[in-house]
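Subject: Re: docking follow-up (pyridoxal-5'-phosphate)

Dear J.,

Thanks for your patience while I sorted out the input files. As discussed at Tuesday's group meeting, I've set up the holo structure prediction with pyridoxal-5'-phosphate included as the bound ligand rather than trying to dock it afterwards. The sequence and the ligand SMILES I used are pasted below, so you can double-check that they match what you have on your end before we go further.
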Amino acid sequence: MDTCRRTNERPRRFSKPSGSLHPPTHESFPIIKVLTFAYKNKYAMLNFGAGPARLPLEVTRQLSQDIIEYQQTGLSILELPHRGEAFGKILSEANALVKKLMQLNDDYEVLWMQGGGRMQFAVLPMNLLHSGRSAGYIDSGHWASEAIRYARHYGTIMVPASSREQHYHSLPVIHEAIPEDWAYLHITTNNTIYGTQFHDFPNSPAPLVADMSSDIFSRRINFSRFDLIYAVAQKNIGIAGVTMVVVKKSLLQQAADNLPGILSYREMAAKNSLVNTPPVFAIYSCLLTLRWMDSMGLDKLDQLNRNKAALMYAFLDESNLFKCLVPTGSRSNMNVCFQMKDEQATGYFLDYAASAGIQGISGHRSTGGFRVSLYNAITLSDVEQLTAVMRQFEKKYDKR
Ligand SMILES: Cc1ncc(COP(=O)(O)O)c(C=O)c1O
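The structure tokens for the complex came back this morning:
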């Protein structure tokens, strides 16, 4: 969209079709065009967007087939009844795969909720911050501070560590001991907008809650250290429209029991995420991505993600034109944020990258610069192509 504006491309006009009217052909149906696209063996553009993000091609292909007909049911996946047997199987396989990938046992419940990350910012304190208690939030970036802002509607919020004064370019360090009587301690494991990521987690006597929206399933960690994990789907799990919540059953017992069902973790768990009509297609996209991740294994994905990030940071650290503001220990393997030393050249590079088939690399509107998201579906070869384009641009720009 931006590119069009910059290159002053004239908007296309729709003209009235001339000649006689013909019955529609396959070409007339957008869905057939989608199918044609998905059956190509690669995507037409490299998409490094922060979410909605790239899906593995195998997943997109399967989704497009299932839009036409889901497993000889005679129905599209888009019309599958949510209380029927077929969707029941989708849900239970997805739940089982989540626990398998996280190596969690039956002490945990998996929930699929709507309303995205922001809804969890509210639902979490609604459920767990009651009876006059306080909760702690580590303030490591935009989304962490949004979570704090939402939680303040429900109780007293303590902030044991913040890197706001460092403009969130590095991770905050917790100096205080975490009190045992806090309802929970909240951490955002990966800060999507600033490109920082926690590689160690705090020891907390209070239940540890994590927003893992932008690094879920990207690495092997000890998930059982957490009492509640939530993650929006649109980065590493599937498409937008659903948020995964993994919660310890013992914590559920402490959750408020006076909330409307749709906002209540307890009710969601009791009804197996079927309090209302769930986003069937979005959950199905998660199942396909979970199967794909399971076939790779988290250890392999972890190694691949480290290699992709290492390639990007090595390039940036040597570059004459680009610079990464995040110090080594705080760097994210999922979102690599950087700027141009000459900020005025930012637009030139965005145009140059777009003409080379690369999109989704603009930094967040609040920070400017660039952000390259290296979620699981991005391959090492994608990153090699991007760094090659950056290198070419550097040569051209230096010769001006
Ligand atoms: C870490 C994190 N948490 C929460 C959100 C907000 O998610 P949503 O847009 O679904 O509200 C985002 C969005 O990018 C995010 O990166």
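A couple of observations from a first look. The mean pLDDT is 91. The longest strand covers residues 156-162.

Let me know if you'd like me to rerun anything.

Best regards,
T.
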